[in-house]
Design a protein that fits this description.
Layout lengths: L1 E8 L5 H9 L3 H9 L3 E7 L4 E8 L2 H9 L2 H10 L10 H4 L11
Antiparallel strand pairs: 1-3, 2-3
């Protein structure tokens, strides 16, 4: 299992709504993530909008590609795009995993 960590920046004036949306993630989106190999997936948000994501998956690119093929992901990403300044790009396409330099196991 590979550990993946990434960062994005949420627009500061949209933080509360972003948090609310993630309390109400669509059941079909949650199912798609599980079916695509996203495990132990968490998002952390700092008050300045720094978003830190963490997940575990056997193959990150395969997990991303699987989600990209799903209609529910296209709908979710389109709705979430307004929370980021990514030049119209969807957040899931802007994820660049950070290099892991230490793990206590």
């Amino acid at each position: 299992m590979k550990r993946i960590c990434f960062v994005l920046q949420v627009k500061k004036h949209r933080l509360e709504e972003y948090k609310l949306r993630h309390k109400q993630v669509w059941p079909e989106m949650l199912q798609a993530l599980r079916e695509s190999g996203w495990r132990n997936y968490s998002l952390f948000l700092r008050e300045d909008g720094l978003l830190v994501g963490y997940l575990e998956t056997p193959d990150f690119q395969a997990a991303v590609d699987s989600m990209a093929r799903r209609e529910v992901n296209r709908r979710w990403q389109t709705e979430m795009a307004e929370f980021f300044d990514l030049g119209g790009e969807h957040a899931d396409r802007a994820i660049t995993p950070l290099e892991e330099i230490f793990h206590l196991e």
